[in-house]
Every structure is written in structure tokens, then in C-alpha cells.
């Protein structure tokens, strides 16, 4: 009864600072705020708060902290690990109204944006201003930049530009007690004390809620070159990657690898996907390079490809002659977004491994799944150039997927190969039981110490990523 009374008092206090459209309760809570894309069952939160200013976000946290009511931050709700999934009895803090590009500083090559702004809006604004935002995800049209930073998103071009944290110069964060910490730095060089922004990037809203950020802009590419290659063995894939790093240098922007099982699912099962390369190959590699001058950089790319053919590393290849060709190449890689429709319910994994171990891992993981989960299909693909492998696994036609067994097998194999259970999608609740597979007891204890320091009442996204109780965490 005391908890219910405090929850009621909290809602009453929130209603005093938020207008009617900014505080939703009961049947007025939209279905979209009851789940993210992690396949967890929907949960109706206590309320949905939708402030439209950074101070409004801080005020919501201050009130919830005063009434001991937990808060779950929500952005575009495209996460796959349950980080934004609501909790019963908690306030869902939606940033969907906290949108807008506040400034593009051409001299500093920076953009200041609000955390609820969709990534695609930011990309287009940069393009119109003659700049380039390298972060790119399949969910670009609906994912929000705050969530991208909260999970330290990766995407397709990490091999050249790094993870999301590499594009952040400044940040503003609402802390658990309602303090608004503004540090909207625009300088690349700023060593004045701790780099506090790094505490919050990748913490999935468990340490603070990002409200604004200063993003670093890059020069707009003048040309993009791509080739989709058929390769005969994994050793040649690794040699091709090393050759691309040496021969293309900073031009290399993506190196995507698809195993044959993925290639078949993408080009046979998904409608409308054209095979740029015919015939059967052991691996299919998409190499992309971005330059400034088509004549100079395009020629360099062509020469590099010819050298790889001469070295026997490429068996066959299709080379882009237009933007349409490049997009067609990428559609084979982005076809994974259609697997839910063509393959049905499945388990999806985002893991990191040493590059030279990836094929051995795939063989071992596939073998265990086939033996221990009869009828299990698993397909492998990913951003191999930055050590990130994706897996889709399922028993086709099963009324219910044996997710517990599939998860156990995949993550046990990851642990055996010295990998990480999360490369770019975060931990949330889905991967939380497996975090000790990739982090030592000492690391987990330090994470809990930081959580206790910044959120002693465990208000922010409780139960996600790390527990305050070190024993429970380890």
C-alpha cells in the first residue's frame, strides 16, 4: 500500500509539471511504449512521461527519485537487448518529443542535437550542410541518437570511423537525482579532468539520461566504390582484409562478410534480392571504400582489386558502376532485416570475436546447435573488419523457439573462444545473465561501484546491465 501511495503521489507531482499530452497513464499509454524490439513480452509501465526540454527530463527524474519510483528511458525503441523495455511500476521516460538540431557549427565541424532526434534526420541535416555523419544503422529512420549513444552503437562503418562514442565531443545528461549536467564541448582536444561523457555512452540509461550531444562531423565523401567478392576460403578472407587495410588505407569504409548459409537465406528466401555474384563460394565479401575524387580514388580502388585477383584471393567479383549498384550490393547484407518475415521468429546474436577465430567459431557453434537443438538452422554474417559477427538461429516451423538452449550454446561457445557477448547492441536484460562470460568479477564489481555512486537509490533502469549487489552481478 505504501508503494502504491508513493506511486500515486509521484504521478500527481508529474502531472503538475507536464501537460496532458506529456503524461500518459492507464489505457492512454500507447502500445509502442510497452515493448521494444527485443522480443520480450509487453509490459505496461506506471506512466509514460514525454518532456520536450532537457530540464523537463531532469525534473521528471527529480520527482521520481523523491518518490522512489524507478525510471526506464526510451528513445526510438529499436533496441534488441531489452535496455528500453518497460518495467512494471516504473515510469517510462520517452524522449520522442525531445527532438531537434540546435546548431551546425561549420568552423568547428560539429552538430548539436537533442537526444530524441532520429538518426536519419541527423544524417540528412549533415548532408545538406555539406558534411557527413558516419554512423549508420538499418533502423536509421526510427532509432534516436540518444539510444544510439546509450548503447554505443556500431553499424556498418566502424572499421573506418569507430563506434558511436568516437563521434561525440560533448554531452548533456540528466542524473538520477534530477541534476542536469551540461558539458557541450566542441573541442577535439580537451583534457581538463575526467572525460565524463564516456561514463554515459554505452551505459544504456543506467547511470544518467542523455538529453543533448555535440557530434563531430566529417567531410562529405566525394565518391563511393564497392565490390561484392566471392572468396574460396576463410584464410583468403583474412588476407583480403589485411590487403584492404594496407592497399586502401583510410579509404576503406566497410568490410562485410557473409557465410554461404546467410547468402542462401538472403538471396533465395528474401524476395527481390538480386545476386550480384553468381556461382557458389565459401564466403561473400562486400568491400566499400569512400574517397574524395572519383578519378583518383576510383582508380586506386580498381587497381587494388586487380592486385587481389592476381594474388588469388578473389575468385569472382561484381564491381559497382553506379550508386544503384552499391545499394544493390548492400541489400544482400541488409536482407537480415527481412528474416523475421521470411524465416519467422528467431534468436539473433551480436557478438565480438578475434577476426582469425571467426570461422572456427562458426563451425563449432553450428555443430553444437545442430546436435543439441535438432532441426536448428543458424546463419552467420557481420562486420568482420571490426571483429563483429551476427548470428540468426531458429528451428523453422517450431511453435515456440527453444531460446534458452540456443542462447546457452551460442554464449558458451563465445566464452570458449574468448569473445564478447555484445559487440554493438548492448546488454539490457536479454544478455545480462551472460555478461560474466565476457567480464571478470573485478570488472563487474567496478561497474556496480560506479552505479552505486551515480544512482544510489537504483532509480535508473533498474535490473538492466548491472546489479548493485556485486554478488548478484558476478
TrEMBL record:
A biological process term (GO) from this entry: respiratory electron transport chain
The keyword Zinc belongs to this UniProt entry's keyword annotation: no
A family per Pfam: FAD-oxidase_C
GO terms, molecular function: FAD binding; oxidoreductase activity
Domain spans labelled FAD-binding PCMH-type: 40-220
Organism domain of life: Bacteria
Keywords: FAD, Flavoprotein, Oxidoreductase, Plasmid
Cofactors (names): FAD
Family to which this protein belongs: Belongs to the FAD-binding oxidoreductase/transferase type 4 family.
Protein name: FAD-binding oxidoreductase
High-level lineage: Bacteria, Pseudomonadati, Pseudomonadota, Alphaproteobacteria, Hyphomicrobiales
